[in-house]
Design a protein that fits this description.
The mean pLDDT is about 95. The chain has 3 helices and 8 strands; from the N terminus they run βββαββαβαββ. β6, α3 and β7 form a beta-alpha-beta unit. It starts with a strand and ends in a 5-residue tail after the last strand. Strands 1, 2, 3, 6, 7 and 8 form a 6-stranded mixed β-sheet that branches. A two-stranded antiparallel sheet has the order 4-5. It is an alpha/beta fold.
Length: about 150
């Protein structure tokens, strides 16, 4: 399971021109799920995500978490995070989980994040052609892979 985190001032997701969801200050997270992922991966990632100290404190040092700043969270499913690019120039998405595996894990990720935050998590629509707009704050962009815990 992989997440790409972007610290944002605001973000919104639209489908066919209709506003689906939005957030103010917080984190926009793109989530990629592979066939071998399970609840251990998502529990570890949700915990890491919510406690990651990437917001500035009063001294302008990144020392505060999303929980500390009471920020908002948006999670967007993105199978392209599982792209394999080793061979050739056309990415392979063979590692991306099927809908039968990915949708329940995506929904559990959202639920666990909501329980931990004590707030609703904004989201897109799984598998839809979404248009995401954001104002990246910093910019701060971090990639985490549950199979490569660095």
């Amino acid at each position: 399971m992989r997440i790409l985190i972007q610290r944002v001032r605001k973000a919104k997701v639209k489908i066919e021109g209709d506003l689906i969801d939005f957030i103010g200050q917080g984190l926009l997270v793109f989530l990629g799920i592979e066939n071998e992922d399970d609840t251990n991966d998502l529990e570890w990632l949700v915990n890491k995500l919510l406690h990651l100290r990437i917001f500035n404190d009063e001294k302008q040092v990144m020392n505060l978490s999303l929980l500390d700043v009471k920020g908002e969270l948006m999670v967007i499913s993105q199978f392209t995070l599982m792209a394999a690019t080793k061979k050739g120039n056309r990415p392979s998405y063979i590692r991306a989980a099927s809908h039968q595996i990915a949708i329940p894990l995506y929904e559990k990720f959202l639920l666990l994040a909501e329980e931990s935050l004590g707030n609703r998590v904004a989201r897109g629509v799984f598998g839809a052609d979404m248009k995401i707009s954001l104002i990246n704050d910093g910019p701060v962009t971090i990639f985490i892979d549950s199979k490569n815990k660095e």
